[in-house]
């Protein structure tokens, strides 16, 4: 049976979204906030109810590596994730399973296609919040294993063209490995679009009168995505 990527998602990862969602795993509690993005995730979860899938593959820009792309390679991770910029909003106790077999397959195909790949096999490794936020809001039950792929930042020292070629090669390797695995996969591109937040945090962080883009160009960038 041939596997396939059954859905692709632009999955915003600001920790504020988990904070506003008030899951039991997150220590800080909010009154409200960031509803537009959270409603988008609600619609996504509703759409996924009609799609059968086995694994979530997430590409996170907040797992930064400088020698190739790395893949979680331990079956289970459990720890506390604290956002370094917003520790008052995000202190999340994660408990997740990894599809190590698929992660190894993507890493192997990627290496065969010329990418530098490595399995992260340290059981004490702390999973990045970009992975956690996108996966939590997509599947808060955490009943599906994940494959988390790092962002190779060495390409940023070169050019947009080099980065694009690396991304295309990783995408091709992922698709090839998924198809060979026989598994049905939801692919998450963890991101933050214009990446605009307040520059001075208000007394009440979820005060949405303080959370806005600063100019029309940022709005156009968000709409473009």
How do the helices and strands line up, and which of them pair or pack?
Layout: E1 4-12, H1 15-21, H2 35-48, E2 55-65, E3 69-72, E4 76-82, E5 91-97, H3 100-112, E6 117-120, H4 129-138, E7 146-152, H5 160-181, E8 184-191, H6 216-224
Parallel strand pairs: 1-8, 2-7, 2-8, 3-6
Antiparallel strand pairs: 4-5
Helix pairs in contact: 3-5
Note the main attributes of this structure.
single chain, 225 residues, 33% helix, alpha/beta, four-stranded parallel β-sheet, two-stranded parallel sheet, 6 helices, 8 strands
State the helical fraction: 25-40%
Distance between the termini: 33 Å
Instruction: Using the CA coordinates, give the radius of gyration.
Output: 18 Å
Number of strands: 8
Q: Round the mean pLDDT to the nearest integer and report it.
A: 92
Placed side by side, the strands forming the largest sheet appear as 1-8-2-7
Number of helices: 6
Please mark out the parts with pLDDT under 50 across 5 or more consecutive residues, or reply none: none
Strand percentage lies at 25-35%
One letter per element, helices H and strands E, the order comes to EHHEEEEHEHEHEH
Largest sheet: 4 strands, parallel
Structural class from helices and strands?
alpha/beta
Global geometry: globular
